[in-house]
Amino acid sequence: MRSARQIYYDGFSTLYDRFVAMHSGDGQRSVREFLAGLLAVARGGAVLDLCTGTGALLPYLADKVGPSGRVAALDFSMGMLRQGRRKTMELSNILLVQGDAGSLPFSAGSFDAVTCSHAFYELKGETREHALQEIGRVLAPGGIFFMMEHDLPESPLIRVLFYIRLAVAGAGRVRGFLRQERALLERHFSSVEKVLSPTGRSKVMLCKK
C-alpha cells in the first residue's frame, strides 16, 4: 500500500519540473548541466542518481558516462519514475529503480559518483542518516556525493511553495539539518566543498568519500 508521502509525490510528479524551474530560475536547465559538468567521471563510469524524481538530470548523466557507462536512478515514487521513463526511453544506459534511499539495493563500491538534485532535504531525519551511510557504502574509494539544493527563493509565490514543500518534508527537521549541514556531511565524508550554481539560487555540496 502506498504511503501518504508516495501519494503526494505521485500526484506532484506532473508539476514537479515546472516548480523546480521557477524555484531555481533555471528555465533552460543550465543548473543540471552545471551539476553534470562537475562530475569527474570517465566514459564507461557508473553514477547513481538518488531520489531522481522525474529524471531531469538523467540525460546529462547518461551523456557524461557514455554508451558504455551506466546510470542507476532511484526514487520511492512510481509517479516520478513514470515521468522519468518518458524522458529516457531512448537511452539504453539508464536503469530506473523504485526503492528506499535509506536502504539501497546496490552492492558496495558500485558507483564512481552519487548525485541527488533538489531532494535530499525532503528525507526524514532517520532516513537521511541511513541514506548518508548507504551513499558512503555504494561509492567506490575516492568517489564523490554531489548534493544540489535550493537556496531560499526571492519570489513570494515560490517561497510559499517552498515552505509547503518543507511542511511536507517536516520543516523543523529541515531547518535543523540546514544549521548543521556541513558538520553532518563531514562526519560521513573526508572532505566537503560548497559550490554555487550559475543562477545563484542553487548550491552543490561536493562530498568526497
Write the layout of secondary structure elements.
Blueprint: H1 4-12, H2 16-24, H3 30-38, E1 46-50, H4 58-65, E2 70-75, H5 78-88, E3 94-98, E4 111-117, H6 125-138, E5 139-150, H7 156-169, H8 171-179, H9 181-188, E6 191-196, E7 202-208
Parallel strand pairs: 1-2, 1-4, 2-3, 4-5
Antiparallel strand pairs: 5-7, 6-7
Helix pairs in contact: 7-8
Could you name the key traits of this structure?
seven-stranded mixed sheet; 9 helices; 7 strands; 209 residues; alpha/beta
Provide a quick synopsis of the model:
The chain has 209 residues and is of the alpha/beta class. It has nine helices and seven strands; from the N terminus they run H-H-H-E-H-E-H-E-E-H-E-H-H-H-E-E.
Q: Could you explain the architecture of this structure?
A:
Helices cover 44% and strands 23% of the residues. It has 209 residues and is an alpha/beta fold. It has one domain (4-208): Vaccinia Virus protein VP39 (Rossmann fold, 3-Layer(aba) Sandwich). Strands 3-2-1-4-5-7-6 form a seven-stranded mixed sheet, sandwiched between helices. Helix 7 (156-169) crosses helix 8 (171-179). It is globular.
